[in-house]
Amino acid sequence: MMKRLLGAACGFAGLAIPGLAQNCPNVTCDQAPSVGNQVNISGATLLRGFFFSPAHVNDFVDVDGDGCFGYNEFPGAGCIDVVDRLARSSLLTGVSSNGAHPSQNSHWIVQNRAVGSVNGFNEFITYQLCCDLPEARVTDESTINSEIYANGSGHLNFPGVCAQDNDGDSILNDSGTPVCPCSIDIAILDVPGAWGSQGPAGTPSPFRKPTQPGYGVFPGSSVAIPGGCSDVAAWPANLALLTRGCTGRQLNFNTANPDADTLFDTTFAFAPIGAISNRGVGRTQIRVTELQHLQVTGRLPSGENLAAATRDAGSGTRNGWCNSLGIDPAWGNGDNRGDETSSTSRTNLGPCHRVTNCGSSSHLENGVQQRRLAIGYSGLAGGTAAVKDAADGFYEILDVMNDHVGGTQYVRPTVSTILDNCDPDLGYRIGGPASFVTLGDPQATGNGAAISNANYNPASPAFMVNVEAANYLYNITASIDAFVGAPTADTNLFSPGQFLAVTFFLLAGQDCNQSVIDPVVFNPVTPNATLQSYIRNNNNFGAGLTPDGVVTPAYGSRNPAGLVPNRGTAYQYNIGTVASPNLQSIGAGQRLAIRNRVQGDFLYDFQRNANDIPNMMSAVYVALNTGNAANYTDGALTPPGGEAGDPGQQAADRIIPDVIGDFDGNGAFDPADIRYFADGLVLVSGSLNRQAGFTSVDASWTVGTGGRPAGNFFNTVITNSQGVPQPYVAGASRFDVAGSSTGAAKGDAPIGSDGIVNLTDVNYVLANFGSWSSLTSAATIDLSCDMTGDLVVNQADVDMILAAMGEAHCQGDFNADGVVDIGDLTLLLSHFGVGSGASYGDGDMNGDGAIDLSDLTLFLSKFGSIYPNCL
Fold first, then answer.
1. What are 286-344's pLDDT values in tens digits?
2. Coil, strand or helix: which one is 846?
């Protein structure tokens, strides 16, 4: 039966629809009975696979009252398909807001903006409070009636798009949709709405939990990338506010006593998130406590400086990931470089490369694929998500130890470990309860002709204005309830509930459900055994792989050495000798030879440590003297441990210096990478030791080259406070941490050095006192200031620099003039009363971040000290 044809949208474009979702007379859009009832959703990119599927708009409750609903192998009179789709896609192709929208049944026009959970939540709040529609482009694949209309690269599929000023703010819509949206009715988050919202006013901390005072606020911003690579100098990381300046109203989550401003969560599935890693990192497992440090500081607890790939703070994936790790997502900034990364070109290698603040899952995934030291995170489920990517050999998925809750074993994310998740030694517990957020209660508003809603209540103060948005959600939740009750019933085939069961994870199938109040807690429930068995036997993360209760490919099983990174041009490598090079080329995305498996492994032992430095310095010598790092080769070597050689898609199993030695991600192996290695990758007895790293670099640089004398690779000059040069000793380049025009970048590549060790470096170290073992302290300091290798930045590090400068110093000598006197007291008193965030250079004698009576008392006990006779 042909359902009603959609009329020409041009007859309705520009028609104001007062009372749609909000009383917004400023909004004009494509809306009329013959166009279809709009349901507009904004938010999560992790869940984009749900909107790709026709299942999300398959009629389960008979929303439109035509008698066609559920699965019918033999459709009855008036029904044309085995399932009745309420929002068709195929006949939308090629139409726009100034053309017709023919379809067999477009009861709904369901549009999804994939912009990140909290970003979409903010768009939803802004519309609901201010009648202000989002006009910006989406950041990931977005759909209208299951057909993609745009992704992070721009508009797709529809030659004509909505390009109007829909809300009277003089900004044209640039989303790419062919249908001008009337509203934002629903926010979709990977997590509950409260997780995406700032808590009450309070002191921010890395360990704040949802709804706690200070939750969702980061007291700082990102560091700009120089050279025109960053659009803004500062990028905030705060979560959503439930207020807007356009009105005095404030939204709330008080569902027990709802009013017209109450938000409701419709939680529909557990969305698991995986720790993803480039093969070059050289790790198969990681502890949650390591991930905490990496996400908050950009370094591991050991001090090792890996590349922490992060989503922007508007991401629900970041939110679910960080909350599951026990840290506030506002603090999960990693290396925290640059503004929102909204293009693949920025996550590819090159001068503007970065992997932080990625504006979509696909951008972060690409960043991990390209950056050989990167560890990040992404949703496991969906046809373009982590399990599928790992199966395709793009990157690896790490096993995780839940040591933050007492776990002692590493757990691999599989279908079974996500279901059987109560025991932290056996269950995988990183993810979030995915939710639709609405203004008003869809369970009091939605209804169906065949499966009516017992909770339907038009008199409720939480009755939703856009009834069709409520019907959309009721259709989903009713299908989930039915599927939980009878997973194998034919009537549930192709329903939203079935799709969520086989791609994500219905909560009723898990042994434990994640706490909404404390996300590291998983509370036991009585799972539906039939449902759990069905999910175990049929869920494949939407990856197209064989359901076997596992699905996730074993680490390294698809790609032994990883892929050639994308830097915009091919890489060269030498299969001849240094004296007689035979250069070959290989392009991005090809399989690397096993020789390049571990980043920084210049010794070819599948490890990265100080033993690699002599060969690394030989390689950089060739690069500096020939102008091409590819001229270096260490010849045909046998892989360690008896492993068979594997040339991948290279001509031979040979080293590519511009791949294996590019630590900072600029696309080339150069002296900046030597500093990166010495500063952040040399571990001694499991802990970072910058002294050992820089000393070994100088000791291995036995033959100098232009501007780089033997024994002083970085050509560092040391001066005293009067500018008089001092003798250089091997390893003293580690003291040079400040003074560059770009400034320092905590946790990221060491870019603060200016070639001179002087009081500028002393003052920078003084401002970074703290212990790396405390995450709260580590979040505020730069570990490049640790000169002694004890993972503590304190007076001993200052004294070491001053000794190299030929200067004297005692504790309390804030201005480093050799005497603790009235000048130092004046400096302390000028900061007296500071409650937090103070440094030693400000007068914080005891390192607690405050300057108070205890600091003054300690200072006075040192008053009068003259080096070397310190009190």
1. 999 999 999 999 999 999 999 999 999 999 999 999 999 999 999 999 998 888 887 88
2. coil
- The highest-confidence range among 142-151, 221-230, 548-557, by mean pLDDT, is 548-557
User: Contact at 8 Å (CB) between 852 and 832?
Assistant: yes
Contact 387, 361 (CB under 8 A): no
User: Which residues, at least 6 apart from 77, have a Cβ–Cβ distance to it below 8 Å?
Assistant: none
Cα–Cα distances (Å) from 40 to 110, 127, 500, in that order, read 6, 11, 20
Q: Which residues pair with 400 in a beta bridge?
A: 286, 411
CB 673 within 8 A of CB 662: yes
How confident is the model over 37-94, as pLDDT tens digits?
Answer: 899 999 998 888 899 888 999 999 999 998 989 998 888 777 878 888 888 765 444 3
CA distances from 71 to 175, 489, 494 (A): 34, 10, 7
Tell me 760's DSSP state.
H
Sheet of 756-757: strand order equals 725-726, 717-719, 756-757
> By C-alpha distance, which of 529, 451, 449 is closest to 487?
529
Q: Which two tokens stand for residue 488?
A: 């194998």
Residue with tokens 């949703």: 379
Q: Which residues pair with 563 in a beta bridge?
A: 591
CB of 678 within 8 A of CB of 688?
no
Residues in Cβ contact with 162 at an 8 Å cutoff, skipping those fewer than 6 apart: 30, 96, 97, 173, 175, 177, 178, 179, 180, 181
Q: Which residues contact 802 (CB under 8 A, 6 or more apart)?
A: 762, 808, 809, 816
Beta bridge partners of 16: 28
CA distance 733 to 697: 10
* Cα 55 to Cα 601: distance, rounded to the nearest angstrom: 48
Length of the chain: 871
Can you state the angle between helices 671-680 and 690-700, rounded to 10 degrees?
A: 140
CA–CA separation, 365 and 347 (whole Å): 9
613-626 helix and 671-680 helix, angle to the nearest 10 degrees: 160
Rounded distance, CA 645 to CA 376, Å? 29
Place of tokens 């990856």: 543
pLDDT of residue 25: 87
CA angle 762, 766, 771 (to 5 degrees): 130
